[in-house]
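Re-running HicB-like antitoxin of toxin-antitoxin system domain-containing protein to confirm reproducibility after the cluster update. Everything else is unchanged from the original entry.
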Amino acid sequence: MELATYEVLEDGTFYGEIPGFEGVYANGTTLEATKEQLQEVLEGWVILGLRLQHQLPIIDGINLTPQQKIA
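Result of re-run:
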């Protein structure tokens, strides 16, 4: 969540996203609500990516993609 960026939109709501995580964004009426929603979206995105065996981004040298074991 340290990589998340936030901005206030013209209508006074907040928008947050995490660069490098395509489709991970949130919108809320308060900054705190937007942060909470963004955390939930990120968790769901990672879980879905793992289930579908997608290549997940490497963040701060941490590879989130499980390595396939060759039998």
